[in-house]
Amino acid sequence: MFVGYGMLLVVPLIGLTTNWNILVVLILTERIGKSLRNPAKSTVLSSHTTTLIIIGMMIFGMVMGTHETIMRSAIADITPFHKRGTGYGVFNTAYGLALLGGAALIGLFYDLNQTGLIIALTFTAELVAIVLYYKMNQMVKNSR
């Protein structure tokens, strides 16, 4: 869970890059981080205590507000004015598809009562995120 939130650190770098390859790696890193954050949030939200439900809603609101604001401003910074609508459209499409796919897959695993698969998917996503983070870090260093 904490690595997922730590992966939000790549979001400001999205606004600094002008290279599409680096941009793709940054966005993928952030998306993988989101997949790591969601199971923890879902656990809090599925609680039967009102206090934990409210805390979960507040965390979700803060993360979404921060994420949406930073991502939109980053897209505005890296896309030319006449292509900004396309940039937002591509971002929102990828965002929605990633959210749909991740939620559907984890939901399927929950329905099948496959806790081991959920753990394996989360662990694998974490490993992929770490590799992508280091590759992105190297790409950013090499582009300077």
Structural write-up:
- With 144 residues, the chain is mainly alpha-helical.
- Helix content is 83%, strand content 0%.
- The protein is globular.
- It has helices spanning 2-6, 11-14, 20-45, 50-78, 84-111, 115-142.
- The protein has 6 helices and no strands.
Tally of individual helices: 6
Radius of gyration: 16 Å
**Sheet bearing the most strands, described?**
none
Please report the total strand number as a whole number.
0
The coarse overall form would be globular
- SSE string, helices as H and strands as E: HHHHHH
pLDDT < 50 stretches: none
* Helical coverage, percent range: over 70%
Relative strand content: under 5%
Instruction: Decide which structural class fits the backbone.
Output: mainly alpha
Query: Averaged pLDDT, please?
Result: 75
C-alpha termini separation: 31 Å
Sequence-ordered SSE layout with sheet pairings:
Blueprint: H1 2-6, H2 11-14, H3 20-45, H4 50-78, H5 84-111, H6 115-142
Q: Tags for this entry?
A:
144 residues; mainly alpha; 6 helices; globular
